[in-house]
Amino acid sequence: MMNSSRSGSSDSNILLGAELLSAAREGCGGDEILRILEGDPTLIHVTDPVGDTTLHIVARAGNLEVANQVVGLVRKYELTEVLMEQNLQGDTPLHVAAANRHKHVTHLLYKAERRAGSLLNEDEASPWGLAAEAGFSLEDFTEFIQGYT
């Protein structure tokens, strides 16, 4: 079941939210995701049964182009709090990208919202702990520090 953080969501918003999550999950190009979000940017907060937002799903897929487009839209509509949203496991989109070893998406998400780097998930793991477990190198971490300080 899909959830929406908006109370009193109309049936059309529920359908659009489901369409948005489906587009992200199926790896549709950023154009389809952006089309839906441009119609109602607040749909970025819609979650699937495990609490993943569209940004979690995009981060898991690791498509930098789509992630960059979604982050751009998040900034445009000042919805950056979605970068800190945690799913039912406590993972932010940054946790998800790091755990899946998507280096460039991890960099993008950290640059967009550095505070997400300090959040712990349900297993008390930070995105950086997950990145280390996933095999990020010392050079990768150095790039994070040098590139975004």
UniProtKB/TrEMBL annotation:
ANK repeats: 89-111
Keywords: ANK repeat
Record flagged with keyword Ribosomal protein: no
UniProt superkingdom: Eukaryota
Record has Cytoplasm as a keyword: no
Protein's UniProt name: Uncharacterized protein
Lineage of the species this protein comes from: Eukaryota, Viridiplantae, Streptophyta, Embryophyta, Tracheophyta
